[in-house]
Here is the input.
Amino acid sequence: MKVLRRLALGARRLSRSWTAMVTLLLVVGLVVVAYRAGTRSAPVDDTVSNVPRVGPADGQPVDAYRAAASHELDGSRNQPTWALVSLTGYQRPAALASLLTGVDVSRVVARVPLPDVQTQLVTLVVDRLTVDVPTGMRRTATAKERAATTAASSAASAGTSELKQVYAQEAAVQRREAAAYRSLCACVYGAVVRGTPAQLRTLAQRPGIRVVDPAPEVTRLDRATFVPLLPEQSGTVGPPSDTAAGPSATPSRSAVGHN
Here is the structure.
């Protein structure tokens, strides 16, 4: 009987020791999991936050931007790089080939310069400059004609006079933009080009070129934003006036389009 009691006591002690060990392991495991959960870096998509923006910043003095771009161009390494070109005025497609000769052109940026209207900034992808810009303008005109029809329909069905006015004004602006692009207007005011520092410096001295802003940080055009200096901006960088188009600026007039 003593032997049996000793065996039972030993079994109970072994059981308690095993339970304590399992409990300890569980506690340690939970601590490790909690620590890892608190210190593990979550996956981060940096494709948006790290997108380079090339061009002047809102509120920046125009002269300061031009000086900084010129300084960077003078110090560029001797290898091809992307650059943002701002023109002195709005140009028709036919004038671009001679104006931008000597460098590879990949994008042009345009807007219809209506007085006191913040018209849409449209980026046109370019392969053949003399062909793709007119084609892109006509495509933009078609899109704006459709937008004008939609805005006019919304005006007809709007429930209040204020909404009717906003949609009617939007339709009017879209029609004016469509007509301008259809006529291959003097609307191009910037370009994205690629060239060697020597080519870019030569371009910067050409009449009609206002700023050449090199962008060595850009490795992919689809991962960068290019915002040229507007020809009418002379003091401080900022959006054009938007008082003639009505009390509400719509997304179509404030967004940057890609064609």
